[in-house]
Amino acid sequence: MDATELTELEDDTSTGKVDGMTDSHLNTTGIQLGGFGEVATMTAETVDFLIRVLEDRKQELLVNDEDKLHVKANYAVAEEDEGGASEETAPSPHRQRLPFDSVNNSGAGDGATVTELMTQKLQIPVVSIIPGIGEAVRQQLASTAAPCSASKLYQSSKLEIVDLPVPVVCPPNASNNHQPQDAIGKDEPTTPSWKLDPIQQQILEDAEVLFIDAHLAAPLLLDPKRNLPFEMQHLLKKVKWVQGTYAGVDSYHQFPEAPADPGFTVTRAGGIMPTALAQFVFGWVIALERKFFDAQVYQEKRVFGRWDLKYRSFRQVTIGILGLGEIGQEVGRTLKASGFQVIGFKRKVNDENRKALASSADRVSSDMHEVLEQSDYVVNVLPSTDATRYLLTENTLEVCSKKKPVFINVGRGDVVAVDTIVNALDKGLLSKAVLDVFEQEPLPKESPLWSHPKVIVTPHISGSVFPEDVADVFVKNLCRRLEGQQLIYQMDWSNGY
C-alpha cells in the first residue's frame, strides 16, 4: 500500500481526519509507525480503526511478519487547531510492547507489524479440574497491588484468561497413577473426547501458553494421537510453555516413548506445598510422640493413666528426611524449630549446600543407610524419578532394625513397594507407617495396607491445592515470560523433575 491509496480514505485534508474518525483516535502517544521518509505516531486503537475502514472499503491488504503499516505524517492525525493542518508528532518515548512480541521473548523492533496490531488479545487457555482456578488468575491480574506486564495487559483488555472444558483422556499404560483422586472415575475411559466449540478449538490451535493439570497435559501433548479426538489432531501444535497446577510432574514420566525433549517447557506449581506438607508431618510426629492415640485408648477404658503416657524429650528424637529439596527443607525447618534432631539425605553434598541447609538439618549426608540407621522417624519427600523408584527395598530397610523408626511417606508411593512395607512392619524393622501416597492411587480396596494394625492411611491429603496459590505461581511466571526472564519451577527433562 502506498500514500496514494491512503489519500482515498481522506475526507478532509485540512484536519487529517479519516471519515468517522473521532478525536479519541487522534491520541498520538502510542506505537511508532515507520513512514515514507516521515514518521507518525499512533495508538493501536487508531490503527485498528484504519484497518476497519480498509476492510469496509474492500481494500486488499497483504501482510506478513515483515510488513509494516506506513502512514505519511500529514495523514497522521495531530490537529493543531480547528482549521489548521496536521503537524508532525514526535515519537513517544514510551512505545508499547505488544503481547506476542513479549510472549516470544523478542523485541518490538522499529515498528509494530500489521499482524501484531490486528491481534486484539493474547488468549491463554485454562484446563483444570480445580474449581475456580481461572477466576483466581483473573482476580490476581485485575489487582493493582503489584502490577506487572501481565496485569497491565489484562487491565488494558489485551490479555484474556479462557476457561475450557476438561477433556476425557485415556489412562496411561503405566501402573503408577498419581493424578488426583477426583480426576479418576470408577470406570476408566478408553475413548478420548473433548467438548469444544469452534471458538475454543481455535484458541487451542493458536495457543503458545497453556495453564493445565499435569495429568491432562501429559497425555494430550506427549501422546496426542491416542488422546486427542481425530478431528482435533491439529490442536496444541504451537504450545511452547505449559504451566502446571500441581507440585509434581510425574505424569510426564508415564509416556516412555515420548522424545527426551518434546519441544515445550513445563513449569510446576512450586512453592505451594512445602508449608502444608511440613504441617502434616509435624502433626503426625507430635501425635505419636505425645501419645495422643494412647490417650484415647485410656479414655475409652476410663483409665486416668497419667504416668503411663510420659513422653521423651524432643532432643532425644532424630528425624531423617529423604530428600532436601524445597519441601524437605521446610519439613526440616519446622521439626528443627521444635527441638528435634534432623538428619537429611541428599545425593550430592558439598560444603556449599551444607551451609545452605543448616537451617533445615543438623546434619546432611549422601549416605542413605546412615540416615536410615540413625533415625527414629524416616520421612520420605522424594519425587518419583528413575533414580528414586523402589529405592527402599527389604535389604535397604534391614539397617532400621536397631531403632525401628516410624516411616512417614508424603513424597511418592513408588519409592517403596507395598509388600516391602508390610514385611518390614511384620519383621519389626519399622514400628509404624503413616502413608499418604501409594504405588497405585486410589489405593485398591484389596490392599493389605487398609487393615494392617501398624499402618495409618490418609488419601493423599498432606497438601491441598488452593486456586489462589496456583494462580500466584502462574501469574509470576507469566510476567517473567512476558519480560523475557527465566521461568521459575522449570522441569528439567533430563532428570525428570
Automatic annotation (TrEMBL):
What GO molecular functions are on record for this protein?
NAD binding; oxidoreductase activity
Q: Which InterPro entries match?
A: D-isomer_DH_NAD-bd (IPR006140), NAD(P)-bd_dom_sf (IPR036291)
Q: Which Pfam families match?
A: 2-Hacid_dh_C
For whether the record's keyword set contains Cell membrane, the answer is no
> Where does the record place the D-isomer specific 2-hydroxyacid dehydrogenase NAD-binding domain?
283-462
The domain of life for this entry's organism is Eukaryota
Keywords in alphabetical order: NAD, Oxidoreductase
Oxidoreductase in keyword set:
yes
Give positions of region: Disordered. 1-24, 78-109
Protein name as it appears in the record: D-isomer specific 2-hydroxyacid dehydrogenase NAD-binding domain-containing protein
> Which species is this UniProt entry from?
Phytophthora kernoviae
